[in-house]
Amino acid sequence: MTTSTISTKTRKRRISTSEHGSSRAADKDQRLRELLSGYSSAIVAFSGGVDSAYLSVVATQVLGAGALCVTADSPSYPEHHRSLARQVAQAFALRHEVVATAELERPEYRANPVNRCYYCKDELYTTLTALASSRAIDVVLDGNNADDRGDYRPGRQAAREHGVRSPLDEVGLTKAEIRELSRAAGMATWDEPASACLSSRIPYDHEITNEKLRMVDQAEDALRALGFRVCRVRHHDTLARLELGRDEIARALDEAVRDEILRALRAVGYRQVAVDLQGYRMGSLNEGIKLRLV
Question: What pTM did the predictor assign?
Fold first, then answer.
């Protein structure tokens, strides 16, 4: 199922543990619901990705109108994910709002240091906790899962400082289990490729600008339009370095497809295009950081 084929039947469907594939995932899902039932209300940081989408749906089923799912609107968030968030919100009758965040107005964020994610999340959680306070909402939740513990994620510090909870992680739900539960629930996001903010495509210590983010967003949209499912456009000034799913690299090197890619990305503003033969891997720009931290 794709995001364009959500049916009325899917909109009315509710998640029940009897539908879930593995008993382990179902047990964790039950613990998640028990954890959420301890709140009278919650804001869910809802990016539109697999994890926050599932959390938003479950929080809505547990808390009803007490769950407010909030999507950030800024140049650093892919339009593709905002679109997914709107579709999931409509399909599962989420109480959904979009708020503006202004991380690009912060010089420490624009400078793009290795802890850039901290400043982005600090901006987001400052906005969401202020919203929670103004509306007397109990808690702010994010979609971090148990698998996220192994990556370099300075944004987790901001979450701790703002008292943000990560219920998927707290009950030990992994990405694979969240996909399994999402699929059983009829959610179109169940097999959506992992994503991150567009600033993660720009090498550390290279300034983040609206123009660079626009180029990346349009380039990745162009690749999806050409049928590439897993894609990252790593921005190296006038060079676009493409990280594609390993099963899609050969297609990108086909002469006709290659020419289409070149035309599309040059139209965006890139002069050169390179295909990374290692393919997509999560946090590739963190590889050097991890070596320095060992």
Answer: 0.87
